User: What shape does this take?
Amino acid sequence: MIIDTHAHIYESEYDNLDEIILKLKNFIVINNGINEKTNKMVLEMADTYNNFYAAIGYHPENVDEITDWDLEILEEELKNPKVVAIGEIGLDYHYCSDNKEKQKELFIKQLELAKKYNKPVIVHSRDAVEDTFNILNEYRVRADIHCFSSSTEMAERFIKIGSLIGIGGTVTFKNNKKTVEVVKNLDLSKILLETDSPYLAPEPLRGTKNDSTNLKYVVKVIADIKGLDEETVLNKLNQNAIEFFDLKGVK
Ligand SMILES: [Zn+2]
Assistant: This one.
């Protein structure tokens, strides 16, 4: 069993969704919505399939369309017991930097909901690491800094305020020494394993459509960096996910 802590597995991303669901029957997937439509999709899949859990939220790229009414819908949907996190939420100044204040406001409103319902959050942070850190430092919600791309020093600052670091396919990329350093320096207990499917397929499949079955390549690279065997690494990463997302009944 492998737990994929961050994926986007739904019909708007995969033409062959039924095939993928079958392929993933021995995987546990935390499936992330990014807007109202995909939040509904991940909720429906979590209700249908035992091995799928839902993270729901409004991604910063959708900030201009989000109203208070949408936040009320999100709050209602959070009551579904298969919702294990609010995500994917955060800040993206790469995609759009002229609405920073609006992005921060939406991020904070969702952190407040996470606090109210005692859920962790899955955080997207692109070209916005300082603001992300400052906001999480103030609100102190348990956070998974997904697809971590910053330095070891930054990772340690996040860990100090209770966050974990999401590691996926990018650690296998040949030119990515920074993430290798992060993995080398962090205790395994601080890492969450993820794909970000359908994006970021690891080497040797880089550039293809990703799914959770490719996590074996990521586990192998982490095991090599740590000088541990793959089974030890996988068991620990699964245990981290079970504890962080409070996945009751998963062994
Ligand atoms: Zn994502």
